[in-house]
């Protein structure tokens, strides 16, 4: 049994869904197919949420645009007209009822209840198309089977309860293909949760672990894992193989090819990850394993944009290290802020975090009595794995460097964007 994961770019239109069906039809064994929201639907639903919470009255227009987009795909896949509408109508109605009947108060909770619908709509359409293509497929609502805690927007999986549910519902004696959602789960009391932005890869890895999959294949619009984003640095090269550890380092630094949490569930059971192109599915892709064969070690360039560099200075000149440092990091964690880089001296600490102004402002309010804060917005974190002097010059030339950090194998710079 294998797990396939298809991201939003691979299913942005009817042609993409036809291509997905063609890819999965070639497989002879059992498959779990994890699908993200279509195209930029998650971003669009975030717009609905923000409009709804601000009560500006335009959220219905945003939602209608999303509905029309999904309907156009469904009707292209399922002529005659009417059948496509039936597939998605009930689910869209549920979201409309929620928006009419609830007054939003907790942003993270409402985020998960609203934005999660993107994956529901995409998988309903994909599952139905696979069935129409003659393949024995079943749609699974993963919200009822991946059980999480109540940490909305970044929920933790309850592994024992989830494993029991997953092994029961993914019954390959009944179906060869199961289609389900990435990115989302559900609490014991029935509320939807999400696993962190771009979390569909993580969902696929969790299911691969629980079902003892032969491998996880993540289908992307690139030929595999590249040593740089080609939109940023031209002339990037594909990495033929890489280790779990290397993948973790890359994703933590900001590489977007796979979600940062993806590797651990795979490594725990030594399940290979293969990153392949849905554009050229016959091509080999990149293999991620415990013991890769490394024929050539390339510098790997990673750019993480939309960062804030924060410097905290104790007002009483007390040492940052020790208990104070522990308390500061507990506050970061408690406010849902992921620390991407930290540099500490005796009486100051520099921290680079994602630019989530609402969360950062809440954190600084908690620290204002004890710490002065200086911060730079609109900065970037540039990282190089297996760096060389030439590779450093390539990405820092002409940049204003605010902070530099080096280890044996990695160098990171915080620079003005």
Largest sheet: 8 strands, mixed
Report the CATH architecture of the largest domain: 3-Layer(aba) Sandwich
Mean pLDDT: 93
What is the helical fraction, as a range of percent? Answer: 25-40%
Contiguous low-pLDDT stretches (5 residues minimum) are: none
Query: How many H/I helices?
Result: 13
In total, the number of strands is: 16
Q: What proportion of the residues form beta strands (DSSP E)?
A: 15-25%
As a whole number of angstroms, the C-alpha radius of gyration is 22 Å
Query: Tell me, what is the CATH class of the largest domain?
Result: Alpha Beta
Name the CATH superfamily assignment of the largest domain. Answer: Acetylglutamate kinase-like
Structural class: alpha/beta
Q: Identify the overall geometry.
A: globular
Could you state the order of secondary-structure elements as H and E? Answer: EHEHHHHHEHEEEHEEHHEEEHEEHEHEE
Distance between the termini: 45 Å
Number of domains: 2
CATH topology of the largest domain: Carbamate kinase
Give the strand order of the largest sheet, numbering strands 1, 2, ... along the chain.
3-4-2-1-7-9-10-8
Can you characterise this structure?
- With about 425 residues, the protein is of the alpha/beta class.
- The protein has 2 domains: about 210 residues, 3-Layer(aba) Sandwich (Carbamate kinase); about 120 residues, VC0802-like, CATH 3.30.2130.10.
- Helices cover about 40% and strands about 25% of the residues.
- The strands form 3 sheets. It has an 8-stranded mixed beta sheet, sandwiched between helices. A 6-stranded antiparallel beta sheet has the order 12-13-11-14-16-15.
- α7 links the parallel β3 and β4.
- α2 runs antiparallel to α3, α2 crosses α5 and α4 packs antiparallel against α6.
- The chain starts with a strand and ends with a strand.
- The mean pLDDT is about 95.
């Amino acid at each position: 049994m294998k797990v396939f994961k298809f991201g939003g770019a691979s299913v942005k239109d009817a042609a993409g869904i036809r291509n997905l069906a063609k890819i999965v039809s070639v497989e002879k064994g059992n498959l779990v197919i994890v699908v993200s929201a279509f195209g930029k639907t998650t971003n669009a639903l975030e717009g609905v949420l923000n409009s709804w919470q601000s009560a500006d009255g335009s959220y219905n227009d945003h939602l209608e645009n999303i509905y029309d987009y999904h309907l156009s795909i469904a009707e292209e896949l399922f002529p005659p007209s009417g059948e496509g509408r039936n597939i998605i109508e009930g689910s869209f109605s549920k979201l409309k009822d929620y928006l009419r009947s609830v007054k939003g108060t907790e942003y993270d909770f409402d985020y998960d209840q609203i934005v999660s619908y993107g994956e529901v709509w995409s998988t309903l359409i994909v599952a139905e198309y696979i069935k129409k293509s003659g393949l024995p497929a079943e749609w699974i609502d993963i919200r009822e089977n991946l059980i999480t805690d109540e940490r909305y927007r970044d929920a933790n999986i309850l592994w024992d309860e989830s494993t029991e549910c997953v092994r029961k519902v993914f019954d390959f004696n009944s179906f060869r293909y199961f289609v389900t959602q990435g990115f989302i789960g559900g609490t014991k009391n029935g509320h939807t949760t999400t696993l962190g932005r771009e979390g569909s890869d993580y969902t696929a890895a969790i299911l691969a672990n629980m079902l003892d999959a032969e491998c996880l294949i993540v289908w992307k619009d690139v030929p595999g894992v590249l040593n740089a984003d080609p939109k940023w640095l031209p002339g990037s090269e594909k990495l033929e193989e890489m280790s779990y550890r290397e993948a973790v380092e890359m994703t933590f630094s900001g590489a977007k090819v796979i979600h940062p949490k993806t590797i651990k569930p795979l490594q725990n059971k030594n399940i290979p990850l293969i990153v392949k192109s849905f554009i050229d599915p016959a091509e080999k892709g990149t293999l991620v394993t415990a013991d890769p064969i490394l024929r050539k070690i390339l510098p790997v360039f990673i750019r993480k944009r939309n960062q804030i560099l924060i410097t905290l200075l104790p007002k009483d000149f007390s040492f940052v290290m020790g208990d104070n440092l522990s308390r500061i990091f507990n506050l970061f964690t408690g406010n849902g802020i992921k620390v991407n880089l930290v540099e500490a001296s005796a009486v100051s600490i520099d921290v680079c975090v994602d630019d989530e102004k609402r969360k950062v402002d809440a954190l600084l309010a908690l620290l204002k009595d004890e710490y002065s804060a200086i911060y730079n917005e609109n900065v970037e974190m540039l990282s190089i794995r297996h760096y060389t002097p030439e590779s450093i010059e390539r990405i820092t030339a002409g940049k204003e460097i605010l902070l530099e950090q080096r280890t044996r194998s990695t160098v990171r710079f915080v620079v003005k964007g």
